[in-house]
Design a protein that fits this description.
The protein is α+β, with helices and mostly antiparallel strands. The chain has three helices and eight strands. A hairpin with a 3-residue loop joins strand 2 and strand 3. Helix 1 packs antiparallel against helix 2.
Length: 152
């Protein structure tokens, strides 16, 4: 059975909006240059700054959108990779408090060090993480410690 690569992303709204504003500024600068309606300095200024803002914000939005990936090598989380053979077990913690409920994926490692807690609530399609983790854990013999409900 071939295991699929599963990616969990978050959307960077602020950078996406800034990229659109940069693109609009570049269009305005180009319009001013083409129509010669204002001084060329303002046209070149808006065109240059708009293109730089558009390119930079688009790059940051794309680069930082991938948060977690489950693949055959291990779990990639925020640029770090944790191999399946380094994991002892994993668990899910559901915290409920006055401000709302929060879900965490907790990874326990073989070296006996601390656990890695990954907050799941701000990832797209976070409801499928427990099912996908179960599939990978079964394939790589990683134990499941269960779901812990905690009142905060």
């Amino acid at each position: 059975m071939e295991l699929p690569i599963v990616q969990y992303k978050r959307h960077r709204v602020a950078y996406s909006v800034a990229a659109v504003i940069g693109f609009l500024a570049a269009c305005q600068g180009f319009y001013w240059l083409a129509s010669r309606s204002v001084a060329s300095f303002f046209g070149w200024f808006f065109l240059t700054i708009g293109l730089i803002a558009f390119g930079r914000c688009t790059w940051v939005a794309i680069k930082n959108s991938l948060v977690m990936e489950l693949n055959h090598e291990g779990i990639k989380y925020k640029g770090s990779c944790y191999a399946w053979n380094t994991l002892r077990s994993y668990g899910i913690r559901e915290e409920t408090g006055e401000s709302g409920s929060f879900n965490y994926l907790i990874l326990y490692f073989n070296d006996g060090g601390g656990a890695l807690e990954i907050q799941l609530d701000w990832m797209d399609n976070n409801e499928s993480i427990p099912e996908q983790m179960a599939v990978y854990a079964k394939a790589f013999q990683v134990e499941f410690d269960g779901v812990v409900k905690k009142e905060v």
